[in-house]
Amino acid sequence: MYNRKDVFPVGLFGNYMNPGPGINTNAPKKKPFFRFWDVLRHNSGRLLMLNLIITALHLPLLLSMVFYVQTDNALTVPFSVFLLVLQVILEGPVLAGCARVLRMIVLDKACFLGEEFRKGFFGNFFPALLYWLLDTVIIVSTWLAWQLYPQYAKENGIWYVLLAVTLGVALMVLFMNFYVFPLQVATTLQKKSVIKNSFMLAAISPKQCLLTLGCIVLTLAFCLGLMCITTYLMFLFAFFPAAFIGYLVMFINYPVIQKYVINPYYADTGEENPEAEPAEDSGERVFTDRGGSEEPAPKNAGKKGKVIS
User: Fold this and answer.
1) Alpha-carbon Rg of the chain, whole angstroms?
2) Phi then psi for 154, rounded to 5 degrees?
3) What band does 98 get if pLDDT is binned at 50, 70 and 90?
4) Which residue has the higher pLDDT, 5 or 66?
5) What is the pLDDT of residues 1-14, one digit of tens each?
6) Buried b (16+ CB within 10 A) or exposed e, 36-66
7) Under a CB-based contact definition with an 8 Å cutoff, are residues 214 and 224 in contact?
8) Distance between alpha carbon 47 and the CA centroid of its chain, in Å?
9) Most exposed residue of 3, 95, 181, 237, measured as fewest CB within 10 angstroms of its CB?
10) Are 54 and 243 in contact (CB under 8 A)?
11) Could you give the dihedral angle defined by the CA atoms of residues 245, 171, 139 and 94, in that order, rounded to the nearest 10 degrees?
12) Bridge partners of residue 3, in order along the sequence
């Protein structure tokens, strides 16, 4: 026998058994701007935890910097380089793990953060490592070009052209990175196809890429502004902004992957698309969901305690 009066009230700020109007299934879909903040609000705790994981997995980089600055002996340079190499090895898989978690968040799907991150990290370890090694080559080459080409240009102006080309390539690779890791965790494409599709997606979506880049710059400028107020705010980097920037990238750019890669695949194969919006049922219904339209029941209803046996 089950008595409603014997139920322990689990609601923190009220009686969870009070009837309400329900959820309107025919409510219009929110605009992207409002949905961005809505999803962010509901997943703020996950993003904080994800940022903590990112911070923990960047300890080799932090220790390398500390060891290089604070020590001066025969092991300083070799050990610092070793920690940097370890960070380079970890960086790609970390981005893959983050991409898997952030994809689930943007798709508004239930997930266990630690489990999803683990699957993304270990399940894509070697492809992600390859992508990041290529990124590292581009980063180092761009930095060297920025340092050397202006000096060479004093003798021959052609070096300015080469510098512009190098920066253009670096910008294109940055845009490709908005798609490489989401493609890797969301599809079963081969590594070569992931790189090729990332290039094509970056080429056909300059608006989304520039919007993402602008949002990233504003976020970093905000963080630097906080640091200018006081360096004690540096501890905030343990909780922000790495995961937030990843969320920005995934929210703005993942719909492009859906439009040009995922949706066409399921349309061609005829399989059910797990990421598609649920279609409205135009047939006759035996039961009708009136969520959001019915009136709440009177508050004094059921006070005597309904018994079901």
Assistant:
1) 26
2) -65, -25
3) very high
4) 66
5) 434 444 434 444 44
6) beebeeebeebbebbbebbeebbebbebbee
7) no
8) 9
9) 3
10) yes
11) 30
12) 307
Listed in sequence order, the residues at least 6 apart from 73 whose beta carbon sits closer than 8 Å to its beta carbon are: none
The residue ranges of every structural domain in the chain are 32-269
Per DSSP, the three-state class of 308 is strand
Query: At 7, which amino acid appears?
Result: V
Task: Copy the structure tokens of residue 287.
Answer: 């039961």
Residue at 218: amino acid letter = L
Residue whose entry in the numeric block shows the structure tokens 């923990």? 56
Q: What is the model's pLDDT at position 117? A: 97
**Could you count the other beta carbons within 10 Å of the beta carbon of residue 177?**
21
- Distance CA(56)–CA(242), nearest Å, equals 12
Instruction: Say what the pTM is.
Output: 0.81
Please count the residues of the chain: 309
pLDDT digits (tens, 9 = 90+) for 179-201: 999 999 999 999 999 999 999 99
Q: What are phi and psi of 3, to 5 degrees?
A: -110, 125
Kindly state the tokens that stand for 48: 């904080």
Helix axes 125-152, 191-204, angle to 10 degrees: 50
| Alpha helices per DSSP H over the chain | 32-42, 44-56, 59-70, 76-106, 113-123, 125-152, 158-186, 191-204, 206-229, 242-257, 263-269
* Residue in the block written with tokens 């990112």: 54
The residue among 83, 80, 101 whose CA lies nearest residue 91 is 83
Six-digit token pair at 151? 């000096």
Residue 48 · residue 113 · CB < 8 Å? no
What confidence tens digit (pLDDT) does each residue in 218-231 have? 999 998 888 888 77
